[in-house]
User: What shape does this take?
Amino acid sequence: MTEHPTHWINVAVQTPAHSAVGALLTYRCPFWVHPGQLVRLPLGSREVLGVVWAILDEAPAHMPAAALRDVLGVLEGLSPLNAHWLQLVQFAAQYYQRSLGEVALSALPPQLRDLNNEQLARRLKKQNTERVVQTRPGPALSPEQITVLEQMKTGTGPFLLFGSTGSGKTEVYLQAVERMLAADPQAQALLMVPEINLTPQLEERVQARFGAEAVVSMHSGMTPAQRLKAWLAAHAGHARIVLGTRMAIFASMPQLQLIVVDEEHDPSYKQQEGARYSARDLAVYRGRLQNAPVLLASATPSLESWHLSRPPDADGQNGGRYQRLLMPSRIGTGLLPKVRRVDMNKQPRRALLSTQLVAALQERVERGEQCMLLLNRRGYAPVLHCADCGWKSECPHCSAFRVFHKIDRSLRCHHCGLTERVPRACPECGNADIAPIGRGTEQLEEHLGELLAHVLRPDGTPVRIARIDADSTRLKGALESQLAQVHSGEVDVLVGTQMIAKGHDFRRITLVAAVNPDAALFSSDFRAPERLFALLMQAAGRAGRDAAQSARSEMWVQSFHPTHPLFAALKQHDYPAFAATELAERTAAELPPISHQALLRADARTQDAAQALLNAVRASLEAQLSADAATQYLVSQVSIYPAVPMSMQRVANVERAQMLLESPSRMALQKMLWHLHSVLHQVRNQPEHKGVIRWLVDVDPQAI
Ligand code: ADP
Ligand code: ZN
Ligand code: ZN
Assistant: This one.
């Protein structure tokens, strides 16, 4: 063979999701590159983007030289992704059981794939390298804020800031950023928020403090061009602050020195497709990796973080590894709203709104105040029903009912999207009298319109009722404009699903009501009470944010179980009491955060086929591990339960089954998953499992 200036590199490219974890492709490279550089490569007949992962010392022995293809070129002008970024991606891929290439490439802005060097050069040139920070002073800090910031200075974290809504947590983030920049003007901070519709307000606040140029946003609502621009600014170190949703955890930030996770309990930090990562958990990992303090914050922390921040016992043992910081008081004279529980057993049968609540709404509207009603079901009614023959509006493709939407007289499946006009008569027996069962937001809106029809605002004009849910906000920009209407006072009574409960700073709301929250008390999902408590506390936090009004602001809960301990804790605004009860139950049942879980899910045309794959995997996995003295312990440390149908068993004619793995040891569970991966590939390829459409692994699942 002739001498060749060429060397060989391992590259991460977008590979099918389930190719072996960590798999990299090897290429020949006729020019010099560094790990972390982005390159263009031939893959099959396509040209793809890849991330250089490693430079090899010699030609790979197991591949004939002729089988190796040449790298086509590098993306010029971009500095390499640093070693921390590569390690973060590698960890995420391994922990969440996905291919390295998938995680790496989906962490990059999609537009990078499509630009040639000339176009990229133009984008880079447009970059404002002179991004100036103009820090404006914040308010004088409260004693609690001062203490917390002091604790952050002396401790190493990770920190869990447990602070009431309105206690000034956001101000703590801003101060922490300010302090960071004062110490190092080149430093970068990552501020994560749960949902995109919460970003605008915080964005304004951050920009007002540090100047618009210092901040970039990262969320899925941005155009590809905006995303690229923000990414480049962060990658080049020009942006001081990245404000983003879960995807921002993978932002390339070479000078990262602080990570804040706002509303850290929020389920939207867990990605629900592809690599099912938890951005909150990755934040803790990334902070340790880059030696950046991590601040998780919430008024209702996740039980995971609460447990991890538990104080040591009397003899100094068993404390968690997070440091808990406390801000119990609201800023100013702002009191937390009074919680009122209404016993629905004492109301007329089938009443949707109690007479007391209707009277309270009227009173508020007449005083010119705003109210917010929560009902976690969109549409008019969840089911249509024929009393004669028993027909119900089931979806033919899913194990779910189609929801009645009165506005366009449709029956819609919220799982597969099937939409049909409401039949004039029962499709089974022809009875013309088919009736809705149960209530959704549309019906609540209509019902309120009737109940409050005679109510006048202080200026003598009629009450204005509006609804915000996934239906009303389907069009781009609709949510923003509807929220703006509420803010500007054009709405008196707002009806909606949980999407209105979070984060929005509605100053004039003095009454928030949960219309029918009982289902979560008895749900089969063990996290349902935790979610409900957080939602209600959040919702309560919406009321009385204006100190002048906080004294008379109220949170109403209508329930058939008004004395339930969850509502009792809510009444006292006592998250620690709620958490203690809940953790005791989880401990007794050996559920997270005491144990760790993963789900293996299979989809197939039949439930039998889906379950057969899972049970076969379980059998071979246990047989294989038991046969080897080195792995026997895993079988006793990790419980693998038999396959069961998922609670939503069928969606769009696909049957879904799942198998739960559970262990007190996260490490043992990870090892088990590693073995599971190879067994799964073997079993999947057996002819008897041809009927399986797809499978996936969900580590630390949010629902089982
Ligand atoms: P949280 O994030 O805990 O809900 P915020 O940081 O949004 O709380 O604070 C609630 C309100 O109090 C905001 O309007 C904020 O501007 C104000 N605020 C926060 N800290 C102070 C302070 N030290 N002095 C005066 N006002 C403050
Ligand atoms: Zn019928
Ligand atoms: Zn359906």
